[in-house]
Amino acid sequence: MVIQDTLFVLWLLAAGPIWAAIGMFLLPLVNKGNADKDQIPTTTLKIAGVISGFALGPLGVGLFYFEPALIRRTTLTAGIVLTVFVSSQVLVRVIDPELPSGLWLILAGPLWAALAAYFLPRQYRAVEANDQNVLTAAALGGFAIGPLIFGLMWQRTPKISRDWMIVLGSLGAWQIYTLFAIHNPANPCVASPFHVTYLTQQTANGIVIGAIYSLMAVGLTLIYSVQGIVSFAHGQLYMVGGYFSFYFLMHSSNVLSELTGAEISINPIFGIPVAAVIVFVMGAVFERFFLKPMHEGLIERVSEYAILITFGFGFFIEYTTLAIAGPFPQRTDRFIEIRRFTLQRAQITDDFAFGPINIIGDRAFAMVVGVILIFALLYFLQRTWTGRALRATSQDRQAAAVTGINPTNMNTLSFGLGSMLAAMSGAALIPIFAWVPWVGAEMVGRSYVIVVLGGLGSVPGALLGGIIVGIVEALGAGCHPDPSRGAAYKEAFALVIFALVLLLKPTGLFGREQT
Amino acid sequence: MAFFKRFESTIDNGIGRRRFGYIVLGLIILFFLWFPNDSSQSNYAKTVFISGFFYAIMASSWALLAGIAGQFSFGHMAFMGIGAYVAGLIARDGIIFAMLGIAISPESISAIGAIIIGTLIAGLVGLVIGWLLLRLRSAYLALFTIAFSELFRIMMLTEYDYTGGSNGLSLRPLLQIADVDAARQVEYYLMFGLLIVCLLVMHWVANSPIGLFLRAMREDEDAASALGVNVVRYKILIFVFTSMIVGLAGAVFYSDVGSERIIPEQLEVLQMSLIIAYAVIGGMESLVGAAAGAFISRYLLEATREVVIALPFGLTMSDGSGAFVWETGAWRYALFGVIMVFTLRYMRNGLLHPIITWFSGRDLVMQETVSKRKSDDDYDDLLEAGDE
Amino acid sequence: MKRNALFISLIVLLAMTTLLPASLVYADGHCEFADETITIGGLAPLSAPGAVAGGVAMDWAFNQAADDINADCGVEIDGVNYQIDVVTGDSEGSPERGQAVTERLIQEDEVDAMVGVYHSAVGLATMGMLEANQIPTVFSEPWNDNVSANGIREFDGAPPRFEDGIDHIFRISPASSMVGSVVVDWLLSLGVDDVVLIVENTDYGQPAAADEAARFEAAGATVSKIDVELGTEDFVPILSRIQARAEAPDVIRILVTGETSFNLTQQMSELGIAPTEDTICVTNQFAFQSDQYWATVPDGNYCAFNRVGIIPSLFSDAAVELNAKYEEAWGDIIPSFAMASYDAVYILADAMERAGSSSDAAAIVGAIEATDLELSQGRYYFDYGAHNPDLPEDTPAFMWHQWPDPIVTVMQYYEQGQSGLEAAVVYPEVYQTHGTSYIVPGTSP
User: Fold this and answer.
1) This prediction's pTM
2) H helices within C94-175, ranges in order?
3) Does residue B94 sit at the A interface (CB-CB below 8 Å)?
4) Does the ipTM exceed 0.95?
5) Taking CB atoms and an 8 Å limit, are B348 and A445 in contact across chains?
6) pLDDT tens for residues A172-191?
7) Is C92 in the same domain as C149?
8) Each residue of B18-56: pLDDT tens digit?
9) Chain B (130-149) residues lying within 8 Å, Cβ to Cβ, of chain A
10) How many domains does chain C have?
11) In terms of residue numbers, what domain contains A499?
C-alpha cells in the first residue's frame, strides 16, 4: 500500500506536468507537416497538448500528434475525464486526508472504459465491420481488462456476441467485488463466513421487490410501445389504484359487517380487480378526450404535448386525492397471515453455515401476483386476437389499419391497460407500504429506470429490468461501505444504471434499435 | 362594445396595435419600477414580488427550452440548485485544485465571484447532461432529468456535513445593507433588473439565427438537419444557456436577495411541476407570457387559499355567519391541474396568448400570409417514432 | 387569433381574480364584543413539502382555542370583551416561506402575537423578524435547542443575528435535549450497551440523533447510526444488514417521522428484528396516534415510544374534552403538539388579560413570564426570563423562556390494537402505570 501511494503521488507530481509540457511543445509542430491540410490554430494545439499530456500522458500526446483531426472531439472527452478525475481528487482530499490507493484502481477502470468506448467503434467503422454492440463491449471490456481489450478487438474486429458481453460484464463485476473486498474487509457482503447467506438474502430481497416493481413498469412500456409516448401520470395512477382498493375494502367490509352483524374483513386481493377496472376506465376516458385528438392531427408537436398533458393529468390526480383522502397514512389488511417465510439455518461444514433467509410473507404473495399478472399480459398479447392487434399496431400502424384493426381503439386500449397495470401494482402494494397521496413519486422514478434499462416498449425487458433494479438497490443499500449512505442513496443506485444505459446502450436490453 | 369597436378600428392594423402593445408593456414596467416607492405597500408585498420575479425567470427560461427549442427538461430546479449550492460552497470553502496543490481561500472570493462560478458550473453540468442525452429522443431527456434532480436533492440532503442538509446552506449575502426597508428596496430592483436582463437576453437568443434554427428543429428535426443545421449542437447550446440562466437566478436569489438560504426541499419534483404549470398556463412559446403566467399563477394560488362566497337573501350558514367559507387546501392545486390540462388541450399557447397576439398584431400578418401548417406531418413523426 | 378567445381568456382571468378572501363575520348570542378583534398569527405547514398532517392539526388547535375562548366571551381588557381571531399562515415547511408569511402576518394582518411553528428550521428563521418587530410569541412544537435560547449569538455556523438576546419568544414544547435524555436514561437503566439509531436526514432527526448518540457514548454504549431518506418505502435491504450482524443489537431507536417511520417499524417487526426478546424497539411520538399506528404497523406490538405531554391517565377534564373534539374532527387521538398549540393561544389570551393590553408587547411579555396557568398539558410557568434573568452556570441557554415541565415519558404498547391512551407508561418511574419499566415481548404486565 505504501509503495502504491508513493508512486501515485509521484505520478501526480511529475508525470502529468512533464507530459503536459511535452505536449505543449510537440503538438504545434503538427502544422508544419500538413501544409496542404487545414491549419489548426497553434493555441488550440498548445491547450490540447497540455490537457492531453496531463490527463493521458504519452498516449494523449502521441494520439494527437498522429491524428490531429481528433483534437476537437477528444478535447471534450478528455475534459470530462479530467473533470471526473479532479473532482474525485478534491473529494478525496476533502473527505479523507490519507489518499486511498484503491481510488486510483477504481478510477482506472472507467478511464480505460472511456478510451475503449471511444476508439474501438471507430476502428470497427473504419474497417466497415458490423459495429452494433461494439460500444457496450468496448466499455465493459475497458473496464474489466483495461488495455487488453484493444488487443482483443482492434485488428481482428471480431463479431460481438452476447457471450462476449456476459463474460466481460461478469469479469468487471468480479473486479469490483474484489476491490471492494480488499478495501472493506469487515463489510457484511464480503466478511466470511456470513457473506454467502447475506448476499443471497439481499439478492432475494431484490428479486422479490423487483418483480413487484416490474408490474408497474410493464404498464409504462406497453403504452410506449403502442402510442410512442411516456405517461407521466403513471405514478399517480399507481397511487390512486392503491386508494381505490383501500376504499373499496373499507366500505365493502363495513357493509358486509352490518349485514351479517359479524366483523368481516375482506382480503385485499379483491381490491386489485376493483382498482383495475376503475383505473382502466379512467385511463381510457382520459385517452379518448386528451390523447385521441393528438392522433387525429388536431395537435401540433405531439411528443411534447403528450409529456405535458399526462403530467398535468397526474398533477390533477395527486392533489384531488390529497384533498379527498387527506395526508394521513393508510394501509389495508394483509394478504396472508404468514409474517415471513424463513429458510432455516443449515450447518454445511464445521465452519460454514447457510441461512437463515427471510422473505416477508405479503411481499412474496405480491410478487407472485405481479408475476402472474405479467404472464397473463404476455399471454394476452401473444395468444388473443386483441393482443395480437395491439402488437401489430405497435409494429406498424398503417399495415395494421389495412388489415382491419382500428388503431384508435388500440390506442385507448393500450392506455387503459397500461394505467390499469399501474393501478394493480398500487392495489398489490397498499397492504405492504403505508399509503399517502405522494407515494407515487418515488415509485415512478424507479419505473422510468426500469423501462429504459429493459428497452422502451419491451414487456419482457421491463420484467428483467425490474428485477435487476431491485437487486442493484438491495445490494447497493446492503453493501455500501457506509451504512448511512447506503440507506440514504438507495434510490440513487438505480440512477447510476440509468446513466450507464443511456451512455452505452440507449436502446436498453431488449429495445428496438434506434434509427 | 361600441367603444371597443371604435377603439379597435382606429388601431386595428399591425403597427397600431403593436405600438399600443409597447405602451402597455411600458406601463407595466413603469408600474413595477414605481411599486416599491408606494409607501402604503408593506415589505411583505415586495417580498412576494421578489419571489415572483424569481419564478418568472424560471418559467420563462423553461419556456425557452421547452416551448421554443422543444427540449423537455424536468431538471430546471436542479440546475437552479446547482447554481445556488455551488456559489454557497465556494464562498464557504474556497476552491481547491488538489492536483496543483492550489487552494483559493474563501475570503478571496466575493459574493459576485461565487455567483459567477455557480452559474458556470450549472452550465458545465448542463453541458455534460446535454451531451449525454440530447442525441436521443426527447422522452429520454424528460426521464433522465426527473431522476437527476431527485438524485441531486438526495445528495444535498444526505451530505449534510458539507451542504447543511435540511437546514439548508447560507450563501454569502450579495448586499450589505443594514436598514431592512432600504435593503428590501434594493433587493426588489436587483431581482427585477435580473428578470428584465434575462428576458432581454433570452428574447435576443430566441429571435437570433440560433432561435430560428431551434424553431426549425422543433418543427421538423430531419428537415433541419438535412438543411445543414447541426441539430445536436444547437440543442446542447440552448440547454447549457438555459441552465446557466437558472443557475444565475438561483445563485442571486439565494444570496440573501430573496431568501437567506437554499434548502433541498426547494428542489422537489413538486416545485418543478409548479414551474411547468406556470409556463404552460402563461404560454410556452412566449417568454413574456410564461413570466407573466408565473406571476399571475402564484398570485392566484395565494389568493384562493380561502374562497369566501357571501350568501344572498340574508341566508346564514349553520354557524351563523353570512358567508360560505371554503378552505380550498389541496383543491386549489387540483383545480390548477385541471386548468393546466385544459389549457394544453384547447389553448395550446397559454391563456395569455390571445392578448399577446392581439398586441403584437401577428394574427393579422398570419391570416394574410401564412397558411396553417398541416398537423398531419407531426402525426407522421409520432408514428415513425413508434415504429422504430 | 379569434376575438372570442381573447374575451374568454380575459373573462376567465378576471373571474379568477375576483375570488378574493373576505373576512369572516361572527354573529354571537350571549357576549357583547368590541368591534375590534385581537388578531393572533399562527404559522404551520399547510401544504407540501411541509409536514401537512402536522400543520392541519396545529391549525385546527389554534382555531379551536380561539373558538373556545370566544365562546367564553373572549379576552376581557378594561371591562371590554374582545374576540380572538387566529390567522394561520402556511409556512410550507420552508424557512424562506416562513419568513415571508411571518412578515405578512406582522405587516398586513397586524397580528398582536404569534403562535406556531412545526419545523424548527422555520422557527429559527423567523425568530429574528419576530424579535425585531417585538411580537410576543409562544412556540408550541419546534424542538431545536436554539429556539428561544437566551441571547443566542450564533447558530449552525451562521453569523451572529440577535445582538440583544431573545425577549419576545417563549416555548412550551421541549428542547430536543430534554427528550433525548429521558429515552437514553431509560434505556441505560435497562442495561443496553449496543444501540442502533435509524435517523431521518432532516433538521429533526440529525440533531436529536447526535444528542442521543453522545449520551449513549458517554455511558460507554456502542452506537451505530444509519441515516435514511424520508419517503423511502422499502427498508428491507437496510434491515437485513442489521440482521446480518453477529449479535443482535440491544435496541433499535427510530428517529424518523410520518409514514416513513411506520413503514420502517412494520418491516422491522415483520422481519423479526425488533421488538424481540433480544432487541427493544423504540420509536417516537408519532406512534401515540394509535389509529394511524395500528393501521400502518399491524405488527408493532410491544414497541416503546417517547411521548411529550401529559400522560393519558393524568388527563385533566380540559384535556379529555379537547381530545374528544379532536377525535370527532380527525378520528384519532390528539397529538401532543395539537394540545400544546391549543394551550399556546390560551397562554397569550391570559397574558393579554393580565397585561391589560393587546398591543403593549413589553407588558404582554412580562405577563407571559409571570404565567401560572393550568391548561390541557398541565401547569404552565416560566423559570427564566426578565423576571429572573440569571441562568445558573449548569443550566443550558435553552431554558430561557422555556416551559420547564413538558412531561416526557416512555410508553409501550402491550396489546394488539391498543389505544394510545391505554398504553403503559414505563418511564420515568413517577409516572409508571403498570409498575414495570419494560414489558418483555410476549408477556403482559
Assistant:
1) 0.82
2) 95-107, 120-132
3) no
4) no
5) no
6) 776 666 666 666 777 777 77
7) yes
8) 778 788 888 988 988 888 887 777 778 888 889 899 999
9) 131-133, 136-140, 142-144, 146-148
10) 2
11) 195-504
